[in-house]
Design a protein that fits this description.
The protein is α/β, with parallel strands linked by helices and about 350 residues long. It contains twelve helices and 13 strands. It has a single domain, classed as TIM Barrel, CATH 3.20.20.70. The strands form three sheets. Strands 3-4-7-8-9-10-12-13 form an eight-stranded parallel barrel, surrounded by four helices. A three-stranded antiparallel beta sheet has the order 5-6-11, with no helix packed on it. Strands 1-2 form a two-stranded antiparallel sheet. The longest helix has 16 residues. One of its GO terms (cellular component) is cytoplasm. GO terms for molecular function: dihydroorotate dehydrogenase (quinone) activity.
Length: about 350
């Protein structure tokens, strides 16, 4: 059935289809029978799927990645599509429109997306008000970033503001310094800026009566030495884990003609072409970080086999975005069913 829905949605420009889907879901999910139907169709409940990290219980290890519900508009919906957790954001202190449209594109032959959204969001205050009203108890992560016009030397102020305002309303935090769509943001991944930023957030965190996990989201475009540096900094600052990976600026190996890709312009690539690199980064992180260090893997998870392979390769949790766009909510259910079969 989703193949028909996708065919219709793909007649619309990508960002317009995304907003249209959100409008439909907000209307349909007000109807109790629709929630019941979705729960029957997409939810898998089994204690063997439960995970516990940082004192947080996850119903299952599959989450919705940041960027999909960045403005926390559907917080009470995602549990009915089988997700074990959802990450909102990237959230910035002040609202911002993001980059000019069009800024989201499908590469259908590659089962991929290119986006240069640019941290478009309603700002932390509006998002906090939505979080206050949520009814679902699904685990929620808060992905935080800086406003485009905030210089890097003052970036920590933006991250701290989002951290403080979101603290009472999310279960964990993600520091996003790896998006390719905010000018100079990736410079914050360099050793000294990253160490200072994470150190400041963690100092504030441990001063709280009940600190919350802070994770770092990294780029797939880091080399092996840079990944070693990241692990060292993460351990020095005492943050809780890593999310690997964000989108890539690499365009190698695509089926879509090069001239068509060049016409679309800059942006981060996600989906099937990222599968190999995201898995490679995961394996390198696990190699150098050792066991007992939580890693969330995201990027190129398009089939149940991809999900199972990541979890076997050292991921503790996984997140979907582009795979959810192309395969629909059945991907969550099929992946969880396969996980249960492999455990038997």
């Amino acid at each position: 059935m989703y193949s028909l829905v996708r065919r219709l949605l793909f007649l619309l420009p990508a960002e317009q289809a995304h907003h249209f889907t959100f409008v439909c879901l907000r209307l349909l999910m007000r109807l109790p029978f629709v929630k019941s139907l979705c729960k029957r169709l997409f939810v898998v409940e089994d204690p063997r799927l439960e995970r516990a990290y940082w004192g947080i219980r996850f119903r299952n290890p599959i989450g919705l990645a940041a960027g999909f519900d960045k403005n926390a508009l559907l917080l009470d919906v995602w549990e009915y599509f089988g997700f074990g957790f959802v990450e909102i954001g990237t959230v910035t202190p002040r609202p911002q429109a993001g980059n000019p449209r069009p800024r989201l594109f499908r590469l259908v032959s590659d089962r991929a997306l290119i986006n240069r959204m640019g941290f478009n969001n309603d700002g932390v205050d509006a998002i906090v008000e939505r979080l206050k009203k949520r009814k679902s108890n699904i685990v929620i992560g808060g992905n935080i970033g800086k406003n485009k016009n905030t210089p890097n030397e003052r970036a920590a102020e933006d991250y701290v503001m989002c951290f403080e305002k979101l603290f009472d309303y999310v279960d964990y935090f993600v520091v996003n310094v790896s998006s390719p769509n905010t000018p100079n943001l990736r410079e914050l991944q360099e050793r000294e800026p990253l160490k200072q930023l994470l150190g400041e957030l963690q100092r504030r965190n441990v001063a709280k009566p009940q600190p919350k996990p802070i994770l770092l989201k990294i780029s797939p475009d880091l080399n092996e030495e840079q990944l070693k540096d990241v692990i060292e900094i993460v351990k020095q600052t005492g943050i809780a884990g890593i999310i690997a990976t964000n989108t890539t600026i690499d365009r190698q190996g695509l089926r879509t003609p090069q001239e068509e890709v060049e016409t679309l312009g800059a942006g981060g690539l996600s989906g099937a072409p990222l599968k190999g690199r995201s898995c490679e980064v995961l394996q390198l992180l696990r190699k150098y970080a050792g066991n007992g260090f939580p890693i969330v893997s995201v990027g190129g998870l398009m089939e149940p086999a991809d999900v199972c392979r990541r979890l076997r390769s050292g991921a503790d949790l996984v997140q979907l975005y582009t795979g959810f766009v192309y395969a629909g909510p059945a991907l969550v259910k099929r992946s969880l069913k396969q996980l249960l079969r492999e455990e038997n």
